[in-house]
Amino acid sequence: MKLYNLKDSSEQVSFSQAVKQGLGKQQGLFFPQDLPEFSRDEINELLKLDFVSRSQRILAAFIGDEIPAEQLAARVKNAFAFPAPVTNVEDDIASLELYHGPTLAFKDFGGRFMAQILAQIAGEQPVTILTATSGDTGAAVAHAFYGLNNVQVVILYPEGKISPLQEKLFCTLGNNIHTVAIKSDFDACQALVKQAFDDEELKHALHLNSANSINISRLLAQICYYFEAVAQIPAEKREQLVISVPSGNFGNLTAGLLAKSLGLPVKRFIAATNVNDTVPRYLAEGTWQPHQTIATLSNAMDVSQPNNWPRIEELFKRKGWALSDLANGVVDDKITQSTMRELAAKGYISEPHAAVAYRVLRDQLQEGEYGLFLGTAHPAKFKESVEATLGQALPLPQELAERADMDLLSHFMPAGFATLREFLMERAPK
Ligand SMILES: *Cc1c(COP(=O)(O)O)cnc(C)c1O
Q1: Which of 118, 188, 271, 305 is deepest in the core (most CB within 10 A)?
Q2: Does the CB atom of residue 273 touch ligand 1 within 6 A?
Q3: Are β-strands 8-14 and 2-5 bridged in parallel, bridged antiparallel, or unpaired?
Q4: Predicted confidence band at 213 (pLDDT cuts at 50, 70, 90)?
Protein backbone atom coordinates (compact mmCIF):
# COMPACT_ATOMS: atom_id res chain seq x y z
CA MET A 1 0.00 0.00 0.00
CA LYS A 2 1.27 3.46 -0.93
CA LEU A 3 0.20 6.67 0.74
CA TYR A 4 1.01 10.31 0.08
CA ASN A 5 1.23 13.36 2.29
CA LEU A 6 -1.68 15.73 1.71
CA LYS A 7 0.56 18.74 2.36
CA ASP A 8 3.29 17.54 -0.02
CA SER A 9 2.33 14.76 -2.38
CA SER A 10 5.98 14.12 -3.23
CA GLU A 11 6.32 12.47 0.20
CA GLN A 12 5.19 8.92 -0.40
CA VAL A 13 5.34 6.15 2.15
CA SER A 14 4.40 2.52 2.63
CA PHE A 15 1.62 1.46 4.98
CA SER A 16 4.16 0.47 7.68
CA GLN A 17 5.87 3.83 7.45
CA ALA A 18 2.58 5.69 7.59
CA VAL A 19 1.52 3.73 10.67
CA LYS A 20 4.85 4.29 12.42
CA GLN A 21 5.12 7.96 11.50
CA GLY A 22 1.51 8.94 12.03
CA LEU A 23 2.00 12.30 10.32
CA GLY A 24 4.14 13.35 7.37
CA LYS A 25 6.21 16.49 6.84
CA GLN A 26 4.59 19.78 7.85
CA GLN A 27 2.21 17.66 9.91
CA GLY A 28 0.51 16.52 6.72
CA LEU A 29 -1.90 13.61 6.81
CA PHE A 30 -1.28 10.45 4.83
CA PHE A 31 -3.86 9.40 2.27
CA PRO A 32 -4.06 6.20 0.19
CA GLN A 33 -2.77 6.45 -3.35
CA ASP A 34 -5.08 3.72 -4.61
CA LEU A 35 -8.68 3.64 -3.55
CA PRO A 36 -9.80 0.05 -4.05
CA GLU A 37 -13.35 -0.59 -5.23
CA PHE A 38 -15.47 -3.71 -4.99
CA SER A 39 -18.08 -4.56 -7.61
CA ARG A 40 -21.70 -4.91 -6.52
CA ASP A 41 -21.37 -8.70 -6.64
CA GLU A 42 -18.23 -8.62 -4.53
CA ILE A 43 -19.97 -6.38 -2.00
CA ASN A 44 -22.88 -8.82 -1.80
CA GLU A 45 -20.48 -11.70 -1.23
CA LEU A 46 -18.63 -9.74 1.44
CA LEU A 47 -21.86 -8.96 3.22
CA LYS A 48 -22.52 -12.69 3.63
CA LEU A 49 -19.28 -13.25 5.57
CA ASP A 50 -18.83 -13.01 9.32
CA PHE A 51 -17.37 -9.78 10.73
CA VAL A 52 -13.79 -10.99 11.12
CA SER A 53 -13.51 -12.77 7.75
CA ARG A 54 -15.05 -9.83 5.92
CA SER A 55 -12.81 -7.34 7.72
CA GLN A 56 -9.74 -9.36 6.78
CA ARG A 57 -10.67 -8.97 3.10
CA ILE A 58 -11.47 -5.29 3.34
CA LEU A 59 -8.18 -4.51 5.06
CA ALA A 60 -6.21 -6.68 2.68
CA ALA A 61 -7.73 -4.73 -0.23
CA PHE A 62 -6.03 -1.60 1.10
CA ILE A 63 -2.90 -2.99 2.69
CA GLY A 64 -2.09 -5.52 -0.06
CA ASP A 65 0.85 -7.84 0.39
CA GLU A 66 2.83 -5.55 2.65
CA ILE A 67 1.74 -7.72 5.56
CA PRO A 68 1.47 -11.41 4.65
CA ALA A 69 -2.21 -12.41 4.38
CA GLU A 70 -2.10 -14.97 7.16
CA GLN A 71 -0.45 -12.61 9.61
CA LEU A 72 -2.82 -9.81 8.74
CA ALA A 73 -5.74 -12.16 9.26
CA ALA A 74 -4.44 -13.08 12.71
CA ARG A 75 -3.98 -9.41 13.62
CA VAL A 76 -7.53 -8.56 12.54
CA LYS A 77 -8.87 -11.47 14.55
CA ASN A 78 -7.04 -10.32 17.70
CA ALA A 79 -8.22 -6.76 17.26
CA PHE A 80 -11.89 -7.40 16.47
CA ALA A 81 -12.73 -9.73 19.32
CA PHE A 82 -16.13 -8.23 20.13
CA PRO A 83 -19.36 -7.58 18.20
CA ALA A 84 -20.88 -4.44 16.66
CA PRO A 85 -24.62 -5.09 16.83
CA VAL A 86 -27.34 -3.08 15.10
CA THR A 87 -30.22 -2.44 17.53
CA ASN A 88 -33.64 -1.26 16.37
CA VAL A 89 -34.80 1.98 17.91
CA GLU A 90 -37.88 2.65 15.80
CA ASP A 91 -39.35 1.37 12.52
CA ASP A 92 -37.03 3.35 10.32
CA ILE A 93 -34.05 3.96 12.63
CA ALA A 94 -31.49 1.72 14.27
CA SER A 95 -28.31 2.24 16.26
CA LEU A 96 -24.98 0.70 15.35
CA GLU A 97 -23.58 -0.03 18.80
CA LEU A 98 -19.82 0.30 18.69
CA TYR A 99 -19.26 0.14 22.44
CA HIS A 100 -19.03 -3.53 23.25
CA GLY A 101 -15.22 -3.59 23.35
CA PRO A 102 -12.99 -3.48 26.46
CA THR A 103 -13.20 0.30 26.94
CA LEU A 104 -16.82 0.64 25.90
CA ALA A 105 -16.33 3.03 22.97
CA PHE A 106 -15.82 2.70 19.23
CA LYS A 107 -12.19 3.71 19.59
CA ASP A 108 -11.47 0.15 20.68
CA PHE A 109 -11.70 -0.95 17.03
CA GLY A 110 -9.07 1.46 15.74
CA GLY A 111 -6.92 1.41 18.86
CA ARG A 112 -6.66 -2.36 19.00
CA PHE A 113 -6.00 -2.77 15.29
CA MET A 114 -3.30 -0.10 15.41
CA ALA A 115 -1.66 -1.78 18.41
CA GLN A 116 -1.64 -5.08 16.56
CA ILE A 117 -0.13 -3.50 13.45
CA LEU A 118 2.52 -1.62 15.41
CA ALA A 119 3.47 -4.79 17.25
CA GLN A 120 3.68 -6.50 13.84
CA ILE A 121 5.97 -3.92 12.27
CA ALA A 122 7.98 -2.68 15.29
CA GLY A 123 9.73 -5.98 15.85
CA GLU A 124 12.42 -5.49 18.49
CA GLN A 125 12.62 -1.69 18.35
CA PRO A 126 11.22 -0.01 21.53
CA VAL A 127 8.70 2.66 20.55
CA THR A 128 6.77 5.38 22.38
CA ILE A 129 3.18 6.08 21.52
CA LEU A 130 2.28 9.73 22.17
CA THR A 131 -1.34 10.73 21.80
CA ALA A 132 -3.89 13.29 22.92
CA THR A 133 -7.37 12.29 23.90
CA SER A 134 -10.66 14.08 24.43
CA GLY A 135 -11.70 11.06 26.45
CA ASP A 136 -12.14 7.79 24.68
CA THR A 137 -9.12 7.39 22.41
CA GLY A 138 -6.90 7.38 25.47
CA ALA A 139 -8.68 4.48 27.09
CA ALA A 140 -8.78 2.48 23.89
CA VAL A 141 -5.11 3.07 23.14
CA ALA A 142 -4.06 2.41 26.72
CA HIS A 143 -5.91 -0.89 26.90
CA ALA A 144 -4.83 -1.95 23.44
CA PHE A 145 -1.12 -1.51 24.32
CA TYR A 146 -1.21 -2.35 28.01
CA GLY A 147 1.50 -4.87 28.84
CA LEU A 148 2.84 -5.10 25.25
CA ASN A 149 6.61 -5.52 25.10
CA ASN A 150 8.73 -2.70 23.73
CA VAL A 151 5.91 -0.18 23.64
CA GLN A 152 5.37 2.64 26.13
CA VAL A 153 2.37 4.90 25.85
CA VAL A 154 2.06 8.57 26.88
CA ILE A 155 -1.44 9.99 26.81
CA LEU A 156 -2.30 13.69 27.22
CA TYR A 157 -5.79 14.74 28.20
CA PRO A 158 -7.43 18.01 29.30
CA GLU A 159 -7.59 18.11 33.09
CA GLY A 160 -11.16 18.15 34.39
CA LYS A 161 -12.66 17.98 30.89
CA ILE A 162 -13.23 14.26 30.59
CA SER A 163 -15.67 12.30 32.69
CA PRO A 164 -14.31 10.96 36.01
CA LEU A 165 -15.09 7.42 34.91
CA GLN A 166 -13.42 7.90 31.55
CA GLU A 167 -10.37 9.04 33.48
CA LYS A 168 -10.44 6.04 35.81
CA LEU A 169 -10.64 3.68 32.90
CA PHE A 170 -7.19 4.50 31.55
CA CYS A 171 -5.36 6.50 34.22
CA THR A 172 -5.23 3.61 36.68
CA LEU A 173 -3.37 1.09 34.54
CA GLY A 174 0.28 2.00 35.20
CA ASN A 175 2.98 -0.33 33.87
CA ASN A 176 3.83 0.85 30.32
CA ILE A 177 0.96 3.38 30.28
CA HIS A 178 1.74 7.00 31.36
CA THR A 179 -1.11 9.50 31.58
CA VAL A 180 -0.67 13.28 31.72
CA ALA A 181 -3.43 15.73 32.68
CA ILE A 182 -2.84 19.06 30.93
CA LYS A 183 -4.29 22.23 32.43
CA SER A 184 -6.11 23.30 29.26
CA ASP A 185 -8.46 21.96 26.58
CA PHE A 186 -8.19 19.14 24.04
CA ASP A 187 -6.96 21.39 21.24
CA ALA A 188 -4.03 22.40 23.47
CA CYS A 189 -3.23 18.71 24.08
CA GLN A 190 -3.37 18.05 20.38
CA ALA A 191 -1.08 21.04 19.74
CA LEU A 192 1.47 19.67 22.25
CA VAL A 193 1.50 16.33 20.45
CA LYS A 194 2.10 18.08 17.15
CA GLN A 195 4.93 20.08 18.72
CA ALA A 196 6.55 16.91 19.99
CA PHE A 197 6.41 15.38 16.52
CA ASP A 198 8.07 18.50 15.12
CA ASP A 199 10.96 18.10 17.56
CA GLU A 200 13.41 15.90 15.65
CA GLU A 201 15.66 15.20 18.62
CA LEU A 202 12.77 14.12 20.79
CA LYS A 203 11.17 12.13 18.02
CA HIS A 204 14.38 10.24 17.41
CA ALA A 205 15.23 9.63 21.08
CA LEU A 206 11.84 8.13 21.83
CA HIS A 207 10.94 6.60 18.45
CA LEU A 208 7.72 8.53 18.68
CA ASN A 209 4.53 7.17 17.19
CA SER A 210 1.12 8.79 17.22
CA ALA A 211 -2.08 7.00 18.01
CA ASN A 212 -4.92 9.46 17.69
CA SER A 213 -7.37 9.46 14.85
CA ILE A 214 -4.73 10.74 12.42
CA ASN A 215 -3.13 7.28 12.28
CA ILE A 216 -4.17 5.63 9.04
CA SER A 217 -4.42 2.16 10.62
CA ARG A 218 -7.18 3.35 12.90
CA LEU A 219 -9.18 4.75 10.01
CA LEU A 220 -8.86 1.59 7.95
CA ALA A 221 -10.04 -0.51 10.89
CA GLN A 222 -13.10 1.67 11.30
CA ILE A 223 -14.20 1.07 7.71
CA CYS A 224 -15.01 -2.51 8.67
CA TYR A 225 -17.89 -1.83 11.01
CA TYR A 226 -19.79 0.14 8.40
CA PHE A 227 -19.87 -3.05 6.34
CA GLU A 228 -20.90 -4.96 9.45
CA ALA A 229 -23.81 -2.57 9.92
CA VAL A 230 -25.04 -2.98 6.35
CA ALA A 231 -24.70 -6.76 6.64
CA GLN A 232 -27.12 -6.69 9.56
CA ILE A 233 -29.86 -4.57 8.03
CA PRO A 234 -32.48 -6.14 5.76
CA ALA A 235 -31.47 -6.20 2.06
CA GLU A 236 -34.47 -4.13 0.93
CA LYS A 237 -33.42 -1.25 3.19
CA ARG A 238 -29.82 -1.14 2.06
CA GLU A 239 -30.43 1.13 -0.94
CA GLN A 240 -32.11 3.76 1.21
CA LEU A 241 -29.56 3.89 3.97
CA VAL A 242 -28.64 7.18 5.66
CA ILE A 243 -25.90 7.07 8.30
CA SER A 244 -25.45 9.76 10.94
CA VAL A 245 -22.03 10.05 12.53
CA PRO A 246 -21.44 12.01 15.76
CA SER A 247 -18.27 13.85 14.83
CA GLY A 248 -15.37 15.49 16.64
CA ASN A 249 -12.09 14.90 14.87
CA PHE A 250 -13.99 13.43 11.89
CA GLY A 251 -12.07 10.15 11.79
CA ASN A 252 -15.21 8.09 12.12
CA LEU A 253 -16.89 9.92 9.26
CA THR A 254 -13.75 9.60 7.11
CA ALA A 255 -13.89 5.83 7.60
CA GLY A 256 -17.56 5.75 6.65
CA LEU A 257 -16.89 7.70 3.48
CA LEU A 258 -14.02 5.34 2.64
CA ALA A 259 -16.47 2.44 3.06
CA LYS A 260 -18.74 4.16 0.55
CA SER A 261 -15.83 4.67 -1.82
CA LEU A 262 -15.17 0.91 -1.66
CA GLY A 263 -18.69 0.43 -2.98
CA LEU A 264 -20.75 0.02 0.17
CA PRO A 265 -24.26 1.27 -0.61
CA VAL A 266 -24.91 4.33 1.53
CA LYS A 267 -27.27 6.94 0.16
CA ARG A 268 -26.08 9.76 2.36
CA PHE A 269 -23.88 10.49 5.35
CA ILE A 270 -24.72 13.05 7.99
CA ALA A 271 -21.96 14.84 9.91
CA ALA A 272 -23.57 15.56 13.27
CA THR A 273 -21.74 17.86 15.66
CA ASN A 274 -22.37 19.64 18.93
CA VAL A 275 -21.94 23.42 19.08
CA ASN A 276 -18.28 22.99 18.11
CA ASP A 277 -19.52 23.35 14.57
CA THR A 278 -16.55 24.37 12.44
CA VAL A 279 -17.48 21.89 9.71
CA PRO A 280 -21.21 22.64 9.44
CA ARG A 281 -20.39 26.35 9.26
CA TYR A 282 -17.75 25.64 6.65
CA LEU A 283 -20.20 23.64 4.55
CA ALA A 284 -22.79 26.40 4.81
CA GLU A 285 -20.56 29.44 4.35
CA GLY A 286 -17.47 28.14 2.58
CA THR A 287 -15.03 29.62 5.07
CA TRP A 288 -12.99 27.69 7.61
CA GLN A 289 -13.29 29.59 10.87
CA PRO A 290 -12.65 27.60 14.03
CA HIS A 291 -13.94 29.25 17.18
CA GLN A 292 -12.75 28.73 20.72
CA THR A 293 -13.62 25.18 21.81
CA ILE A 294 -16.75 25.02 23.95
CA ALA A 295 -17.22 22.35 26.62
CA THR A 296 -20.39 20.29 26.05
CA LEU A 297 -22.04 17.11 27.32
CA SER A 298 -20.74 15.26 24.25
CA ASN A 299 -17.18 16.06 25.29
CA ALA A 300 -15.44 13.66 22.91
CA MET A 301 -16.75 15.92 20.15
CA ASP A 302 -15.45 19.14 21.69
CA VAL A 303 -13.05 19.78 18.84
CA SER A 304 -12.97 23.03 16.94
CA GLN A 305 -10.13 22.09 14.57
CA PRO A 306 -11.05 18.60 13.40
CA ASN A 307 -7.82 17.19 12.08
CA ASN A 308 -9.20 14.57 9.72
CA TRP A 309 -11.09 17.10 7.63
CA PRO A 310 -8.41 17.42 4.89
CA ARG A 311 -8.79 13.69 4.22
CA ILE A 312 -12.51 14.11 3.66
CA GLU A 313 -11.91 16.95 1.22
CA GLU A 314 -9.32 14.86 -0.60
CA LEU A 315 -11.63 11.87 -0.84
CA PHE A 316 -14.45 14.00 -2.27
CA LYS A 317 -12.04 15.46 -4.80
CA ARG A 318 -10.63 12.06 -5.80
CA LYS A 319 -14.09 10.53 -6.17
CA GLY A 320 -15.61 13.54 -7.88
CA TRP A 321 -18.23 13.84 -5.14
CA ALA A 322 -19.74 17.22 -4.19
CA LEU A 323 -19.21 18.45 -0.63
CA SER A 324 -22.69 19.90 -0.83
CA ASP A 325 -23.97 16.29 -0.71
CA LEU A 326 -22.55 15.85 2.78
CA ALA A 327 -25.50 16.39 5.09
CA ASN A 328 -24.84 17.92 8.47
CA GLY A 329 -26.43 19.32 11.58
CA VAL A 330 -25.62 20.91 14.92
CA VAL A 331 -27.16 19.99 18.27
CA ASP A 332 -26.72 21.97 21.48
CA ASP A 333 -26.70 20.51 25.00
CA LYS A 334 -30.30 21.36 25.75
CA ILE A 335 -31.57 19.49 22.70
CA THR A 336 -29.09 16.69 23.35
CA GLN A 337 -30.71 16.20 26.75
CA SER A 338 -34.28 16.36 25.50
CA THR A 339 -33.29 13.85 22.80
CA MET A 340 -31.84 11.48 25.40
CA ARG A 341 -35.18 11.65 27.22
CA GLU A 342 -37.08 11.13 23.97
CA LEU A 343 -35.01 8.02 23.24
CA ALA A 344 -35.42 6.71 26.79
CA ALA A 345 -39.19 7.04 26.36
CA LYS A 346 -38.87 4.76 23.34
CA GLY A 347 -37.00 2.29 25.53
CA TYR A 348 -33.51 3.16 24.29
CA ILE A 349 -30.93 4.44 26.75
CA SER A 350 -28.29 6.54 24.99
CA GLU A 351 -25.53 8.95 25.95
CA PRO A 352 -24.90 12.47 24.65
CA HIS A 353 -22.81 11.57 21.55
CA ALA A 354 -25.29 9.07 20.16
CA ALA A 355 -28.12 11.45 20.98
CA VAL A 356 -26.55 14.19 18.83
CA ALA A 357 -26.35 11.77 15.90
CA TYR A 358 -29.89 10.50 16.42
CA ARG A 359 -31.32 14.03 16.62
CA VAL A 360 -29.96 15.16 13.26
CA LEU A 361 -30.90 11.84 11.68
CA ARG A 362 -34.50 11.96 12.97
CA ASP A 363 -34.87 15.55 11.82
CA GLN A 364 -33.47 14.93 8.32
CA LEU A 365 -34.63 11.40 7.45
CA GLN A 366 -37.01 11.37 4.48
CA GLU A 367 -39.98 9.14 3.80
CA GLY A 368 -38.86 5.72 2.60
CA GLU A 369 -35.31 6.09 3.90
CA TYR A 370 -33.73 3.93 6.57
CA GLY A 371 -31.51 5.59 9.17
CA LEU A 372 -28.61 4.37 11.21
CA PHE A 373 -26.86 6.41 13.89
CA LEU A 374 -23.60 5.43 15.49
CA GLY A 375 -23.66 4.62 19.17
CA THR A 376 -20.08 5.60 19.88
CA ALA A 377 -19.93 4.99 23.65
CA HIS A 378 -21.68 2.94 26.30
CA PRO A 379 -24.18 5.10 28.24
CA ALA A 380 -22.48 4.13 31.51
CA LYS A 381 -19.30 5.78 30.33
CA PHE A 382 -21.19 9.04 30.73
CA LYS A 383 -22.97 7.92 33.87
CA GLU A 384 -23.15 11.36 35.53
CA SER A 385 -24.76 13.17 32.64
CA VAL A 386 -26.99 10.27 31.64
CA GLU A 387 -28.30 9.85 35.18
CA ALA A 388 -28.80 13.58 35.66
CA THR A 389 -30.63 13.87 32.33
CA LEU A 390 -32.83 10.82 32.67
CA GLY A 391 -33.34 10.92 36.44
CA GLN A 392 -32.63 7.23 36.75
CA ALA A 393 -29.69 5.19 38.01
CA LEU A 394 -27.48 3.33 35.54
CA PRO A 395 -25.67 0.19 36.60
CA LEU A 396 -21.94 0.26 35.85
CA PRO A 397 -20.68 -2.40 33.49
CA GLN A 398 -18.04 -4.61 35.06
CA GLU A 399 -15.08 -3.01 33.25
CA LEU A 400 -15.88 0.35 34.83
CA ALA A 401 -16.98 -0.92 38.22
CA GLU A 402 -13.61 -2.58 38.73
CA ARG A 403 -11.67 0.60 38.03
CA ALA A 404 -13.93 3.14 39.74
CA ASP A 405 -12.25 2.74 43.15
CA MET A 406 -8.65 2.63 42.00
CA ASP A 407 -6.20 5.53 42.46
CA LEU A 408 -5.38 7.83 39.54
CA LEU A 409 -1.75 7.51 38.44
CA SER A 410 -1.71 10.63 36.22
CA HIS A 411 0.96 13.32 36.13
CA PHE A 412 -0.28 16.93 36.10
CA MET A 413 1.23 19.62 33.88
CA PRO A 414 0.67 23.13 32.47
CA ALA A 415 0.05 23.46 28.73
CA GLY A 416 3.65 24.51 27.92
CA PHE A 417 5.90 22.30 25.82
CA ALA A 418 9.04 22.51 28.01
CA THR A 419 7.64 20.49 30.94
CA LEU A 420 6.28 17.83 28.64
CA ARG A 421 9.53 17.58 26.73
CA GLU A 422 11.49 17.03 29.93
CA PHE A 423 9.02 14.39 31.07
CA LEU A 424 9.36 12.56 27.76
CA MET A 425 13.17 12.77 27.60
CA GLU A 426 13.36 11.15 31.03
CA ARG A 427 11.55 8.19 29.53
CA ALA A 428 13.67 7.76 26.42
CA PRO A 429 14.92 4.19 26.09
CA LYS A 430 18.66 4.02 26.91
C1 LIG B 1 -14.07 10.15 19.59
C2 LIG B 1 -15.53 10.13 19.81
C3 LIG B 1 -16.41 10.73 18.90
C4 LIG B 1 -15.91 11.52 17.71
O5 LIG B 1 -15.30 10.70 16.75
P6 LIG B 1 -14.32 11.35 15.65
O7 LIG B 1 -13.79 10.21 14.89
O8 LIG B 1 -13.26 12.08 16.42
O9 LIG B 1 -15.15 12.27 14.85
C10 LIG B 1 -17.77 10.60 19.11
N11 LIG B 1 -18.26 9.95 20.18
C12 LIG B 1 -17.45 9.38 21.09
C13 LIG B 1 -18.06 8.70 22.26
C14 LIG B 1 -16.06 9.45 20.94
O15 LIG B 1 -15.28 8.89 21.85
Answers
A1: 271
A2: no
A3: antiparallel
A4: low
